[in-house]
Amino acid sequence: MSHQHNGFREFVIVTRHGQTELNRHNKSVEDKRHEVLTGRTHTPLTEKGRTQALEAGERLQTLLDAFGWRLKGIVSSPSPRAVDTAMLIGSRLRNSMPDVHTDRRFHERSLGVLENMTIGEAIQRTGLPQEEILRLRQDFDRAPEGGENYTQVTNRVSSGVFDLRREFFQGGSDLQAVLVTGHKGVVRCAKHAFGGLSREEVVKFDVPNADFVVFGFHLREEVLPEDVPTHDRTIHFDR
Predict the structure, then answer these.
(1) Domain carrying residue 157
(2) What is the mean pLDDT of the chain?
(3) Which residue among 63, 96, 185, 226 sits deepest, i.e. has the most Cβ atoms within 10 Å of its Cβ?
(4) Which has the higher per-residue pLDDT, 134 or 239?
(5) How many domains does the chain divide into?
(6) What CATH number is given to the structural domain containing 205?
(7) How many CB atoms are located within 10 Å of the residue 115 CB?
C-alpha cells in the first residue's frame, strides 16, 4: 500500500458490492450458456457477500486511519445489493456512520431486453453467436435493445463523481474522502474516466466483490468531462 498523497486533497473511493446469488450462480455453471446476464436485475447478497462487505468496512477504517482521511459521505447505487453493501461497510466504521445517499448514476449498466436472460436465451432471442453476446454486454459503442453501452455508463459515472465532489468536499486543510458503492461496470467506467485505462484495458479489468479503487483529486480543481484526467491521478491500494 502506497502512502503517497501526490498532492491530492480529495479522494473518491469506489467499491463493488459484495457477492450476490447470481454472482455465485454464474461462477458455478460449467456451461457458459447457463450464465445469467444480470445488469440491473435484483439479486441479494449471499452470506459470503455480507461478510465481504463487513471486511471491506474494516479495510476502509484502516485506510482512513493510515492516511488521515475524513470520510464525508457514502453514496450508493440504488440497487439493493449496493445499498446493503454500503450499510454493512458503514457499520464497521469507528466513528458515526454518514448517511447513505443513493444516486442512479452509479447504477449498473442496463442490459435492456437481455436483462435476467441466460446467455443461451439471449442467443435464441437475438440470433447472435455466444461470443457476440459476451462482447455486447461490455461494448462501448453498441447497446442491447433498451439498454446502455459503456460510453453512456462512463458519462453518467463521471457526472456523478463531479457532482459529489462539489457536494461533499468543502475545502479546508484536511484530507477528505467519499465512498461510492456500485457495480463492476461502475468501477470499470470510473477507471476509464479517471484512471486512464483504454477501452480495451477496461473490459479486461478485474473487479473483485467488495474491493476498492481510489481516485485522488487536487483541491477545488474543476475538471470538465471532456478533460479526462490521466493515469497518474489514480492511486491503487492493495487489499
Answers:
(1) 10-20+48-108+150-235
(2) 88
(3) 185
(4) 134
(5) 1
(6) 3.40.50.1240
(7) 17
pLDDT at residue 3 greater than cutoff 90: no
One-letter amino acid at 159 equals: S
Residue 25 inside a domain? The answer is no
Question: What distance in Å separates the CA atoms of residue 129 and residue 149, rounded to the nearest whole number?
Answer: 19
